[in-house]
Write a structure and sequence with these properties.
- The chain is α/β, with parallel strands linked by helices.
- The chain is 20% helix and 17% strand.
- It has four helices and five strands, in the order H-E-H-E-H-E-H-E-E.
- The chain has helices at 18-25, 45-55, 94-102, 117-123, and strands spanning 33-36, 61-67, 107-114, 137-142, 166-170.
- It has a five-stranded parallel beta sheet with strand order 1-2-3-4-5, covered by helices on one side.
- Helix 2 (45-55) packs parallel to helix 3.
- The radius of gyration is 17 Å and the shape is globular.
Length: 174
């Protein structure tokens, strides 16, 4: 464990020696898998995501985005306009998500896991109207749908992905 929000990270390789650092930084394929989780403190998530994006050159990206954050002050935080992606729930994740979304043309595989509906209400609309030309796999799961009871959840984003061959969705419609 390297203390970074990216699992199976090549970052430890860059700390072995100068030679190892040069080698790791010269291989974009080492940096094309980006995992944003809450396993470690999120203070440097955005900087790490930005570094991975830069180091991966123009390779296609595989992204795993686990949003475990929750607005404990008010779990029914009103829908936030997708242009700002602000609010208590996004303190830890907003900048990382913006960096990733700016590279939408490079997404090949993307798995997004939400552990509360409020996060899905904020992030999924940010996919609307966008084009993901390389995207082949998209998985979206809302893991805790207990709070909204019998209310209808309709979080299916509307986007263009001409190469999409697999779509997995869990709890987007209730």
């Amino acid at each position: 464990d390297d203390g970074h929000p990216l699992t199976n990270s090549p970052i430890p390789i860059t700390h072995v020696s100068r030679w190892w650092r040069r080698q790791a930084l010269s291989l974009p394929c080492l940096w094309s898998c980006i995992h944003v989780t809450s396993a470690q403190p999120p203070f440097h998530y955005a900087e790490a995501v930005k570094a991975y994006i830069e180091r991966s050159s123009q390779l296609s990206l595989s992204i795993s985005f686990l949003c475990i954050a929750r607005d404990y002050e008010d779990p029914r935080t009103p829908y936030l306009d997708n242009s700002d992606l602000l609010g208590p729930i996004w303190v830890m994740y907003a900048r990382s998500w913006r960096y990733l979304l700016a590279e939408k043309h490079r997404w090949k595989n993307c798995a997004i896991y939400f552990f509360h509906e409020t996060a899905a209400q904020i992030i999924l609309p940010s996919l609307n109207g966008r084009t993901f030309p390389r995207l082949e796999y998209l998985g979206i799961a809302i893991c805790d749908c207990s709070y909204f009871g019998d209310e209808v959840l309709n979080f299916v984003p509307k986007f263009d992905a001409p190469n999409l061959t697999e779509l997995r969705a869990q709890n987007l419609l209730k």
